[in-house]
Amino acid sequence: MKKSVAITLAVVIVGAGSWVGATWYTGKRIEESAQRHLAETNEKLAKITPLFGLRIDQIKYERSLFSTQARYGLSFVKNDKSPQEMPDGMIEFDAKIEHGPFPKSALARGAIAPKLAFFHAELAKTDNVKPVFELTRDVSPLITDAVVSFGGNTASTSKIAPVKITHEGNSVDFSGMTITGAFDRSLQGVTAHAQTDTLAVDGTKGNDPIKMLLSGLSIDVDSRMGKFGLSVGDSGFKIKRTEVVKPDADVKLSLDNFGYTVKVAEDDKTINVQAAYQSGDIIVNDVALGNAQAVIKLAKLDGAAVKQLSDTYNQLIRQYMADTRDEGLNDEQFQVLLDNAGKLLSGNPSFSIDPISWKTAKGESKLTFSLDLANPPNAKDLTPQEIIVKAIKQIDATLVISKPMVQDLMVQYAVKKEGLAADKAAEEAADNVRSMSGMAEMFNVGKNEGDNIVGKFHFADGMGDLNGKKIPADELFAGLLGSMGMNPSMTDDDEESEPAVGATSMDGDTASASAGETLQEFNVDMVVSMLDDMGYTTRKTDGDEGPVLILDAGSTGATDLRMEFLCNDFTEKCYDLVVTATYATKKPASLKAINAWNREYRWTRAYLDDKNQAVLQMDMNAEGGIGKNNLQILINTYFSITEDFAKTLTAAPAK
Predict the structure, then answer these.
(1) Using CA atoms, how far apart are residues 449 and 363, in angstroms rounded to an integer?
(2) What is Dmax (Cα atoms) for the chain?
(3) Cβ(358)–Cβ(364) under 8 Å?
(4) Is the alpha carbon torsion for 470, 472, 473, 479 positive or negative?
(5) Where are the beta strands (DSSP E) in 1-153?
(6) How do residues 613-624 score in pLDDT, each as one tens digit?
(7) What is the pTM (predicted TM-score) of this model?
């Protein structure tokens, strides 16, 4: 019996001694590694921005057998380029480190397996942060608990304290935030979840009054370091409900379940990115706008090139911000950017929107878009337009607009915001949708297919196709580059010799316009040339306000077809162009047919003249600029409409 007791006592003593020894060892190991980790952390913090640095200093470190008491300070490191308003002083944190292998707080949380340490830290109450403690009612604004394994993996929980502020009738009420997370050292992986119940802002007593409530805010991260040295994984953000009121602007908005997710994945050679945005019900001023979503994808991005581009770009930005640029180094860096951009394009990356969708109870409107890219050979020898054409392998885009959906939204707005009667609002909305449908056909941006307006665009092999109309690449991209201030094909020598748009030559004639030119006035010779290309013969005469072109009516069905230039008496510039078709039918046209036409085609004007003849008229204005291509489309569309108008007149005899 005495022998058994002795053995048991020996085992207890040995076990206790081993535990004490292990605890002493882990405490010593933590202390030795603390300085190394602190130096590594400060090195990383110094690279965050060149305008200032962040630094953590160890103020106190008192190790005992079972635990260590420490204090750390976080401060800005200023330089001669730092903003003057940067704060001085330190933000200090108190830390208690319980040594392993069995820290009691870790055991209390169910961590039975041996651990290196349990770490508890909280913001210390110092003079620098005393006002923050007043807002949190003397509770530490930030508290963190973490369990650290011997392998370096960490599981943590952090809490940001609730805050209530009231000042001059305005208030902020923040319910606080809880953040749980884990770090996997071998994968350099991070998982985290942050949750906030409410954030309420009442600023209705301020100069810019607003009231806002965010409910159920959450953030999720699940990432790891990928093989290319870039983080891959998933991240997301969600707000269960958002309410905003702007009393001065008479705006009231509510939004349910708004959020986004970003997924970054990789394979042996490439990186793929997908961002998805979505919202639940959107209501603005009591008008239910439905819900929306958008999915954006980047695929087949060369991983090594993306990493090099990222590193070089960040280096350039740091140099620019710190104003330490070296021209030679910049040339080299920009060449690296260009080389890696070429590598990206060589992999035939793609960009797509699949889809952007807007849905209500009455229908769904959506846009789908895909762009496939390629690396243009000998890019240095190509013009900007040639680079774009050769870099774009293919474009496909489809836009679908639901007419019932648009009409319903118009009715809701007119009834709830403008106070119109429901039948009157429905009538006006129907007129507007008919007008929109006609305009889509008129400008060839869409075709009417049942309840939808559908627009389709395809580009490949240097040729675009917009709803069946072929558009060569030079015409398609010339306008785009011109709007960006870039001449798509002009060389330096051309720039010296080419007259400016609208410039006058030595003999007084205005320089001829290019296909993509923006006109500031209507020129008779230019319009005659345009009509001649369209197959219309013209005869010029003088009118009361400017020149008049009499056209051969051809197949339009009109008995008289003319264009009148309305010119300014002082400047002699013609800013307005009116095209008029007159129809002398055997039987007078009915007012019912005229009114029906005006309801559907609101960009033209139909009426009966003094001789009871039907007239179809359209006005065009160049003040502020009108594209030459657009002018040609307008005229062409008008001529095609005149045939429809003639058929309408013959199909609807007077009563």
Answers:
(1) 14
(2) 134
(3) yes
(4) negative
(5) 52-63, 67-78, 90-99, 117-123, 142-148
(6) 899 999 888 887
(7) 0.69
